[in-house]
Design a protein that fits this description.
Layout (H helix, E strand, L loop, with lengths): L3 E10 L11 E9 L4 E6 L5 H15 L7 H11 L7 H22 L3 H4 L7 E6 L9 H13 L4 E4 L11 H18 L4 E5 L6 H11 L6 E3 L7 H10 L4 E3 L6 H9 L5 E2 L8 H14 L3 E2 L7 H13 L6 E3 L6 H5 L11 E3 L12 H6 L1 E2 L24
The structure holds D-gluconic acid and magnesium ion.
The site of D-gluconic acid (GCO) has 13 residues, from loops.
GO molecular function: gluconate dehydratase activity; metal ion binding
Catalytic activity: D-gluconate = 2-dehydro-3-deoxy-D-gluconate + H2O
Protein name: gluconate dehydratase
């Protein structure tokens, strides 16, 4: 048995930026055991880098001294301790990263990748969809040109947000702009590529319904977060008035919260994020919950290369997988380099990496050299979650 002896949050940054402001920083968690084993996890940065960094230190108090080989027991104990876990994104993402690192350690001890610890893989290659590819795209032509490049690289599905700066409400002009962009992408990629529409949870139900009616003729495979995250009533209304698939899940932070959406039939494609749902321990339960209700899984995978590695492990064991989100080809180089060349996208697929634990080898030297003091992100007119350079209308 190995006791958890050290938990270290590491904030990594580089001058080369990510496709969205909040993706320019990575928060890595390094867990060390009394017998010298090391495991890595990743937390979600968003606008809360300092808060997450500090929360990892607080959550660590509940994990240090515990058995590294018992992530389930440790999660249950922390669930008992942290009265606000189900309401705190910071606690959820800190707990998730520590949990991942524990599974990494167990895998390394047993000499097996995580997928083997969880029943084995159901596929050797993970089908992925592209995101982050449309930086600086404003006009329909911009979108079409970039979409063609994505397809040329071998992707069979791509996601984008065609709504520019529209927020809460959309008017005729906004609908027209969104439609022209979607139409241009559909014409550019043909009918055999899946188009996924990202709303970033920013519309009221009536506007989201208007959008669905307007875009359904382009056969989007799903509509992601069409209404504000906490607007369950709005989502029910959207469900009643539209027939397109709903995708959501990146902001869910517990199993029971997820159960509400799944059991009420409010989601077709569930997008849990292994860096805030509760790591591997809760992630595996969410996969089964979805399976029981015939809901497909497409892990949210928008931050860094460690998240990507865990998402690949878990996609390997998921019978009800739709696709895994992927930024790999649009990551800044430093994020790709944190993991040695093992998660390349080829023909729209990533081979399941099979090194012990996380499945890939981490460039520890690079991680050390990218360490910075945590600091606040600047707030600009274009929100941090937007793919950069797209928060503009193209008609005057
Ligand atoms: O589904 C997603 O991936 C998310 O909603 C985001 O994480 C954004 O797309 C990201 O901010 C763009 O870089
Ligand atoms: Mg999203």
């Amino acid at each position: 048995m190995a006791k958890i002896s050290e938990i270290e949050p590491l904030v990594l940054a580089h001058t080369e930026k990510g496709s969205a402001t909040w993706a320019s920083v990575m928060i890595v968690v390094k867990v060390v055991t009394s017998n010298g084993m090391v495991g890595y996890g990743e937390s979600v940065p968003t606008l809360r880098v300092i808060n997450v960094y500090n929360t990892i230190k607080q959550v660590s108090k509940g994990y240090i001294g515990k058995e590294a080989e018992e992530p389930e027991e440790n999660y249950q104990e922390w669930y008992k301790q942290d009265f606000y876990l189900a309401r705190s994104f910071e606690s959820a993402t800190a707990t998730s990263a520590i949990d991942q690192a524990l599974w990494d350690i167990v895998g390394k001890e047993l000499g097996a990748p995580i997928y083997k610890l969880l029943g084995g893989k159901v596929r050797d290659k993970i089908p992925v969809y592209a995101n982050g590819w449309y930086q600086d795209a404003i006009t329909p032509e911009d979108f079409a040109e970039k979409a063609k490049e994505v397809v040329k690289r071998g992707y069979k599905a791509l996601k984008f947000d065609p709504f520019g700066p529209y927020y809460n409400w959309i008017d005729e002009k906004g609908l027209k702009e969104a439609e022209e962009r979607v139409k241009a992408v559909r014409e550019a990629v043909g009918n055999d590529v899946d188009i996924l529409i990202e709303h970033h949870g920013r519309f009221n139900a009536d506007s989201a319904i208007l959008i669905a009616k307007r875009l359904e003729k382009y056969n989007p495979m799903f509509m992601e977060e069409p209404v504000h995250h906490e607007d369950i009533e709005g989502l029910r209304k959207y469900r009643q008035h539209t027939s397109l698939n709903i995708a959501l899940g990146e902001r869910l932070i517990s199993l029971k919260e997820t159960a509400v959406y799944v059991s009420e039939g409010l989601v077709n494609i569930l997008q849990p994020d292994l860096c805030n749902i509760g790591g591997i321990t809760v992630g595996r339960k969410v996969i089964s919950l979805a399976e029981a209700f015939d809901v497909e899984i497409a892990f949210h995978n928008a931050f860094g290369s460690i998240q990507n590695a865990y998402s690949l492990q878990m996609s390997a064991i998921t019978p009800n997988l739709y696709l895994l989100e992927n930024f790999y080809d649009w990551f800044p180089q430093w994020k790709r380099d944190i993991v040695f060349d093992e998660t390349k996208v080829e023909n729209g697929h990533v081979k399941v990496p099979d090194k012990p634990g996380i499945g890939v080898s981490i460039n520890e030297k690079l991680v050390e050299s990218l360490k910075v003091e945590p600091k606040e992100l600047e707030v600009q007119e274009e929100p941090v979650w937007v793919v950069k350079g797209t928060w503009k209308k193209y008609l005057t």
